[in-house]
Amino acid sequence: MKISILTATYNRAKYLNVLYKSIVNNISSKYEVEWLIMDDGSVDDTEDVCNKLVGTDKSVTSLFGESRLQIKYFKQENQGKMAAINNLSEHVTGDLWIECDSDDFFVENCFSKIVDEYEKISDRNDIYALAFLKQDLDGNNMGNNFKNEISTMYDLYFKEQEDGEKALVFVTNIRKNYRYELEHNERFVTEARMYHKMDKDYKIKCINETIMVCEYQAEGYSKNINKQFIANPYGYYKYFYEILADMDTKNIDPSKRMYVIKHYILFTYLAKKRLCLKVKGLKNKLLILLLYIPGTIKSIKYKRANKI
Fold this sequence. Notes:
globular; Spore Coat Polysaccharide Biosynthesis Protein SpsA, Chain A; about 40% helix; about 300 residues; alpha/beta; about 20% strand; single chain; 2 domains; 9-stranded mixed beta sheet; 11 helices
């Protein structure tokens, strides 16, 4: 069994050792681990830190009499996190695939939990990921516990009233068939756009166990979501349109339906697209028509208030 950890990093050198130590603390003779790091054009000392980490992998794993950890460092011109993960994907050799931000880290014994849970479903060909919980630095769950053992990412957030972030452990031979789809050379797109495509053919298994701790940075994507919306409108436009055109919205939570339609109108304006009513469901079409003019007026104000 081999676990691949993919980390895209940009000017986060001071956090990498924390993540590294959490990986080392999870090393076991039962499985191999590879840590693939993509430096997204950092201008701090990320390269020096990573080169030192690459040099430590043999000494750390010699405790087991054989290599159980391999660290590989790559560098690209700055393209954003999603492109970095896409570019790392060709180097993945593990059975399981975990994407971990450079300012996140793993809890103790979590790799053993992951392997144990994977072995329960390893004979199934309809599961694309194991979904675990994330917590913040104070130990608080970053969302709700899962209600169902088997679900999809779409159903979790649009039908099961889930919220907050989850830690996904992908089955590599399925995950390799998908990429983060970036539009118009943008730097960011929500991960959910790819998840929803995977949801059409596969499911996730949900486990109410924490495997990852998250610390948001002031310059991170999540802290600057309005700027991300303005800077990356085409990917978000595609994301919200695909929900309305491709996904089953019959039984989604009413507040989620309004959220999608409002944002579809917002990104129709931001991406300078013509309104398209080729969506599923009469209810969606009527709401779009009803909200289009007031939504566009509000979008104009939103753009003015969030100029980059």
